[in-house]
Amino acid sequence: MLTRNCLLLFLWGLVNEGSVSSLRPPSPPLGRSRTGREHARSSAGPMRNGAAGFQRVKRGWVWNQFFVLEEYMGSDPQYVGKLHTDLDRGDSAVKYTLSGEGAGSIFTIDQTTGDIHALRSLDREEKPYYTLRAQAVDIDTNRPLEPESEFVIKVQDINDNEPKFLEGPYMASVPEMSPVGTYVTQVTATDADDPTYGNSARVVYSILHGQPYFSVDPKTGVIKTALPNMDREVKEQYQVLIQAKDMGGQLGGLAGTTTVNISLSDVNDNPPRFSKSFFHLRVPESSAVGSAVGRIKAHDLDIGKNAEVEYTIVPGDGGAMFDITTNEHNQEGILILKRPLDYETKKAYTFKVDASNAHLDPRFQSFGAFKDTATVKINVLDVDEPPVFNKPSYVMDVYEDTPAGTIIGAVTAQDLDASSSPVRYSIDWKSDLDSYFDIDPVEGTISTNELLDRESIAQHNISIVATKLNSPVLTSRVAVTVHVLDINEFPPELASPYETFVCENAKVGQVCSAVNLLPASSCVDMSGSHGIPLPHRGGFRRRLQEIYFLPVVIDDNGYPPKSSTGTLTIRVCGCESDGSLLTCSAEAIFLPVGLSTGALIAILLCIVILLVIVVLYVGLRRQKKKETLMSSKEDIRDNVIHYDDEGGGEEDTHAFDMGTLRNPKVVKENLYRRDIKPEMKRGPRPAISQDSADIRDFINQRLKEHDTDNSAPPYDSLATYAYEGDGSVAESLSSIESLAIDLEEDYDYLSDWGPRFKTLAGIFGEQSETHSDSTTTENTH
What we know:
Residues 1-22 form the signal peptide. By secondary structure, the chain is α+β, with helices and mostly antiparallel strands.
């Protein structure tokens, strides 16, 4: 190495300026360095050459970049290189000095020759280079001959560091059943040697342990799967040893290793499997509904959510009686009872249960169905149970004052167990403190102990206890409700005075309102036995008899039966052709409407209030009128009636009726009554005798004429007659003249006007018939 450095230094001098050429450092300025050198040369030149004057001489440093090997193990100091200037002529007149990093401690220089040596071994990885400064001075005066120049000593690398994995050991995971070439992880090794010098830092990766499952890329350190279908259930953990070697993996290179722990993560590649295909369970029949009666389990080799199992009961024998759920902690199937068990009804149940995964992986569905099936048989165990009543509760009825010892009902209970033990009955004394009832312990019949009073206690609630004869501890209870019925002490009566109506034109045999209907109900056709048939006659005549009182016998179905007699009031009314009410008395009109007593009272109050208002109004009018008359300034006897009608003279007797002035209340003779026809003519008055017989005959004749007068109003009226005797100039002063009618008129057309005129037509029709009959009689006489 020393020979090589010297050779390099020699070649460097030949290439530049030969042995006398100067290598100038880049740091000082060229002009300044040359001026300094020329000045030094001029001052030293006369003494050395012995000549006068100035002479230009070409001078400078002769040196090169220095290298030193790291990790030098020799006994002598390692030669680094040589410094030399062209001013040095070998006469020991030049002294060389060294300063900078490591000067004196690591590096030393021979002041006369300029040789540099390394005093100790160096490590490039600790410090790759050192920067130093060199200077040549006059040995006698210690004056600088050359400006200080800087140079570098590099530590030359050797392969003294192996590759290292700074992040190891590594942990990695890859899904099981992965294909070849699936990425697992990447490892990285670093080499502290100089990557720019040789192959000391070029690393190559290889697997020392872990084949044939995994492979590593020699350049990148990427680890991949090398074997397909690795199963986690077979082997889950793998340890791979990776080596990193420098020098490109060549012989003599340094190597480092690391460990990679690789685990296979789980995928759902295994279905659940029952440990056995048949499960046999035993369940007591007394098990409560909703309780767990058994457990089964299907094992899944997977882990986590891939091992979650769902259990279902295949429809069949046990689907209605049992249910199954999954225990989330251990994935067991828990059988739940849905309905009560009865050993006497069914002693065993057999059904199938499916176990399947909740989360399926579609990649493995081609492997087959991911479920398993097992058969479950449940035997029902017989349990000694209490007796069972045939009804959940009992209801019985008994009449009050029933003699003691009367049986009112019975309860029945039986032992459903295989032993079929006899049952004994008793009454819970807490529910019958007064001992109103007794029960036959064998038959279960319930009877009264004393007389019952409905007015005191209308309902008794007792509890019957049934006990097994061979196991008195097992008992059951049932509630019995006893209703005390009221005996028939009072006969039935009408709730209120019932009143109804019947139409005048009712048909023979038509059924009118029943007594159990509301008051004043309409006549309806009823086929029941409570209807009131009409008498066999040609209708009714309201003028002959308006009200009928019908006795009604009322019977009840009580115990014992009672009866009474009530009276039904029937009114005869006018009706439409369809049977609806047309005219009747005020009460008959209101009753069908269904007016209550309160409504009638309200109507009457309104009428009274209206009458009071009318009376007050009339009284006020009269009072005002009286005050007006009394406040007049003129006496009432002085009032004169003025008429501005101008007459035609004394001979004019038709212009004004002077009789009006004498008596203003006189009615003209040509005025007719408004309630009679104006075309009716009066007949001559017969002669009237003055004796009492004549007067009586006169009145009777006038009364007969008035009754047969068709023009008279259809209501009762008062006729007043004044008889002044025979020969009176004024003749009769009667205001009503009842004369015989010469003109007869047929009123049959009123029947064609509708039902509203039937009454009027009947009145005038009867009068016409009566008049015809009287006329015929007179003609006969």
